[in-house]
Design goal:
MetI-like fold; 0% strand; mainly alpha; 313 residues
């Protein structure tokens, strides 16, 4: 276990270093000058020169990268040139919103995807199996923004049950918070549920045909016990890894969904920063989400190591 962790941790450092270079390099390809955008309509040359010197925009690219990387090592991800606020504070401000949306979406995905996958595998080649596969195909092929617009038209415009957009903190009004988050969470969870359903079905079909399942049935065990205790426990091993990776994708920010529902999370923060040429915010948020994704990937590997006896052997 220790050797496994050391190997995984040793791979994280060069990965993050490469990610930092990629983030900083691609950011420079964005069109426009943040100093010119920040200077306003007058675009006074003296103001532009001052802003470029203040944010090191007049320095060579390797020097600017070193300034940024040295700040990262000290916990400083820079300062937003537009909002005049540290990027760390913006991340702390938006992180609870993104975590809540990700957790709710994963809840929908796990409940719908695993349940549909079990039913599809147990009732193979029946109407339930075909219906579950049609659901998975629909979930994989439906764009999130289009499904979000349809839900808004139905539940907000036609029925008036839910708010069309916006966000309310759970500490202010829990009921209003859930009402504002249920549609975007379902939109995100719908696509993930389709992926989980396909993986759960495939794993369950493989496990149900194994020798130990046939032995359990030969002993006269109840079919529900055979499916839930013997088959599902082993079939969920790859699903655990996949769920951790999907949670990392959700934490990186669901850009289109957050834009459609005006959810002030990481996705909307990155989009606004790109439009405003706010380099520091884009670099800081993307680096943070990449680190969170790599960390969750490590936790997924550890979970797979713990639940799979063959890995421990």
């Amino acid at each position: 276990m220790v050797d496994f962790l050391l190997k995984r941790l040793a791979a994280i450092v060069p990965t993050l270093f490469f990610v930092s270079i990629l983030i900083f390099g691609l950011q420079q390809l964005l069109p426009g000058d943040p100093a010119v955008a920040l200077a306003g309509e007058d675009q006074d040359p003296n103001v532009i020169a001052h802003l470029r010197a203040k944010f090191h925009l007049d320095e060579p690219l390797p020097v600017r990268y070193w300034y940024w990387l040295s700040g990262v090592f000290h916990g400083d991800l820079g300062e937003s040139v537009r909002i005049q606020k540290p990027v760390v504070e913006l991340i702390i401000e938006k992180l609870p919103v993104t975590i809540e949306l990700a957790v709710l979406a994963m809840g929908f995905a796990l409940v719908i995807g695993i349940t549909a996958g079990i039913v599809s595998a147990v009732l193979k080649d029946t109407a339930w199996d075909y219906a579950a596969n049609i659901f998975a195909l629909w979930g994989l092929s439906t764009p999130n923004f289009w499904l979000g617009i349809l839900l808004i038209m139905l539940f907000a415009v036609k029925l008036g049950w839910l708010p069309a957009s916006g966000y309310v903190s759970p500490f202010e009004d829990l009921k209003a918070n859930l009402a504002s988050m249920i549609m975007p969470a379902f939109v995100l969870g719908n696509a993930l549920a389709a992926v989980l359903m396909r993986h759960t079905r495939s794993a369950m079909l493989q496990v149900l045909s194994s020798d130990y399942v046939r032995t359990a049935r030969a002993k006269g065990l109840n079919e529900r016990v055979v499916i839930l205790r013997h088959a599902l426990r082993n079939a969920l091993i790859p699903v655990v890894t996949l769920s951790a990776l999907q949670l990392g994708e959700l934490l990186s920010g669901a850009v289109l969904t957050e834009q459609v529902f005006s959810i002030p999370g990481f996705g909307k923060l990155i989009v606004d920063a790109v439009f405003n040429r706010d380099y520091s915010v884009v670099q800081g948020v993307v680096l943070f989400t990449a680190t969170a994704y790599i960390t969750l990937n490590l936790l997924a590997d550890i979970a797979y190591f713990l639940v799979n006896p063959r890995m421990r052997a």
